[in-house]
User: Fold these one by one.
Assistant:
Number 1:
Amino acid sequence: MYSAMTTGVILLVTFLVFIMLGYRFNRDTSSIEQGGLVQFASRPDNAKVTIGSAVLTDLTPSKITVNPGKYDVKMTRSGYRQWNKNVDIRAGEVLWLNYAQLVPDNVETKQLTKFDTIVDAKSSPNGDRFALLTDAAKPLITYVDVTGETPKVTTLTIPTNALPEGKTPTFSLGDWANDSDRMLINMTFDGVTQRLVVDRREPNRTINLSAKYEADISEAKFDPRSSERMIVRSSNGDLRTIDTASDALSSVLATGVTSMSVYGNDAILVVQTLPDNAQSVGYISFGSSEVRQIKRIDSTERTLVAAASYFSEPHVAIATGSKLDVYRLRSLPSSRSTDAISMTSLTSSVLPAAIDHLSVRSSGRFVVAQYASGVQTYDIELSKQTLTSFSVPVAEELRWLDKYHFYVTSGTDLQVMEFDGGNQQRITALTTRFDSVQSDNGEFIYSFNVHPDGGFAIQQSRMILK
């Protein structure tokens, strides 16, 4: 009896372990196969899920183990447009379909605050506000906070001690810092452009980087570790850092730099020209003054580099002309180190045109290579690349609402689509090309459009029905 009980327990545990590992009986092949786990989530939730011909009993968020294969997945909810995806489910793997954005059948859009003029608008990294320039010839920045039911508008005047005496400059908006407090402002006069750092909370802390450090700055980026630190590149390609807290300008870290980007909190990625009609892709670890080469490019075509860590593994994307290469690195040692750098090629492709913008997004999952009439996204998790064509050429870098959705303005409307171009949806009429943002809870998308009585207005498009 004890032997039988022990054997029964062992068999039951073994059976449960196999069930937990996703093994199921496949009626089509009359065999036991390991399936794949699919996790579903939608915004808003409580959507009905259909995978293949099977309708799940549970509404989103939900999950199910499915036999390997290709399936059509649908998510539906009354009052919303249907969401569709073709997926490939692999044995023993988890597929996350947790980014479904359901769009109302009829998106209600209403105009809110009106502005007589707007020449530029930039959304903050966390999407809680916009910075506006209403007149390029005035040192005024307007902030629009969209975290509440109605937008809150405040105005900041750039201190006169940051402005040139006896000049009438024009202004344009640069990048925000990650903390959404400080921002780069470009100020141009007499054919010269100076870079200002403006703090929306403490305007008196505004710094004219170009004047204070007597630096020729053609490009500037915030150090991701602190908005008090800047990475700057001169017109001749010299790379330096500025620490505004300690009032320090570094020595030249690299020369001949044609493009730069940042790898998390670890390093500055650079592309440098070489004297033999070639280029070098390398990096400088933060705190170091040495450049370490990752790859030599035997071409003079424009080269871009971007990198991010995905599940603790560095991934580097390099674009030269229309060619894109993506590598996985075992690690990225300090640029001072002599440890070997192990690089594994994940994909190499040639796009229809020269790549204008390159980035690695969504916590390192997606490599986004954009050209004038389209974008190619390489999904590192699924080892899958997709090519999306735009109906109207897009010159500026793609703007994203969240980790999975970007948007484009065609000149007549605002269109939202997923990272792979799927589920393209028209949200509202839109003739401007200013930034848009989506509220944290996904309830609204805010954008700017012309006002019927002239000027512009911020408008609110409801994405979740009451």
Note: The longest helix spans residues 2-20.
Number 2:
Amino acid sequence: MRRVLGLKEIIIDGFKSFSERTKISFCNGINAIVGPNGCGKSNIVDGFLWCLGQQSAKTLRASSMQDVIFAGSLKRKAHSMAEVTVVLSNENGLLPIEFQEVAITRRLYRDGESEYLINKQAVRLKDIIELLAHTGVGKEAFAVIGQGKVSEVISQSPQDRRTLFEEVAGISHFLIKRKESERKLE
């Protein structure tokens, strides 16, 4: 039986439409976020992917990375930074880290400075990618299937589909290590 990583909560502050600190808790089993068009459902998915390392503003439905910082409204001031924290349960030891709960945080400031943290300790993006590499969760993972992803998977090239299957099978971690080793040998 394949071990599964548990999503406990997402904390969003100043990211896209979230002007106030918002905490969304998840229970075991199936969870659903429902609401009318324009209420921010897709921004939750974008925040999750952004926190786990997504570098493409286009993928996040923004024209530049600074666009993910709350820009203000008639009644609310613009934020100076965006922050998203994804809290994962590691009780089954799937992540190679000695914590039962792992909080991954990403911050982006208006001046372009960015920070990544694991359990409030500064880390590199590479550390987050390596931590999540064999779990099926990450910026390119299909643990989250957002708007338009189903049709994208169906219309993918065979090579792109292979990448998907490698991620789902949990072998992408080894492929990343292999590419890194080959690069070092060159």
Note: Residues 62 and 68 are 7 Å apart (CA to CA).
Number 3:
Amino acid sequence: MWRSLPITVSVSPSVPLLLAAFVLLSSPLLLSALLLGAVLHELGHCLALRLLHARVTALRISVLGAEMQIAGRLSYGGEILAA
């Protein structure tokens, strides 16, 4: 089955600043909806990679989005599916 591998997670220092700005300038409901949408979006990428039998080794979160690093390579069709 799936072996448990450590995943390196790094968060850009600007992410907490952006979240603080959202808290100050908008409603908590809007912030919650945006964060939930972002998390579900990234989980969709994780599901596609899991279906392709790719192992995620690192996750980098920045203001512009998230980037997942995988072990090995995907075919062109696999890359299109994961993207």
Note: The chain has three helices and three strands.
Number 4:
Amino acid sequence: LLYYMDENHTMHNMFGFDQRNPHHFETLDNHCLSVLRYVIEHNNCVPLIVRLSAFLHDIGKLFTYELKEDGVHYRFHGHDYVGSNIAYNILKELKFSNEICDSVKFIISKHMLMKQFHDENGHLKISAKSARKVLRKMDNFRDEILMIMDADNKSHEVSSSNHLWHQIDDFRALVPSLLNNPISEKPRTLKCPVNGNMIMSAFGVEPGPKIRDYIAIAQDIFDEFPDATADEIIKE
């Protein structure tokens, strides 16, 4: 990776890139290396997809930076999604397997999911509904994404890190209650039980893009009321 060179000199441009952001005290390359180092030092048997994701998690900043209104600092809106695609393309060109490329792309795309959920003491501050949404969006990569998030949080500028220090530990502790099913030994499902056929039958909607809108509304209701049945959600 260190010697990778594409037509945009992406990896080369990481080195020495000044993030010009109050949450960071390191250049982009050093921050990414700090996250990688933290992941390796604080977890056992770190999978390759996590190590790759750690090193490449902020590469999208090279293509999304814009000057804030203060004329001094940068913002990086969408760097998670832009970076996930860049990382995917780099790994594909380096002949990594499709599984590794897809996994790293997904992990990087989700590494900003929880940044806003904290209090002034560095602990998690989140509603049960939002926590279920976050957990669902992590899909089958919860542990890997949480490793990246925790390392990223603790590799920020000191005052910024203090606001995030306990966030991921708190979330990990919360997960069992989110998945606990009071009526079954199987973990609670986070995916809404309402499907497209139910929507079409209940509302007389023709197949098409509008079905996705109904499904999204149903999922939002289920995130709020995780014990609701499909019939109850449709009636709502």
Note: The chain is about 55% helix and 0% strand.
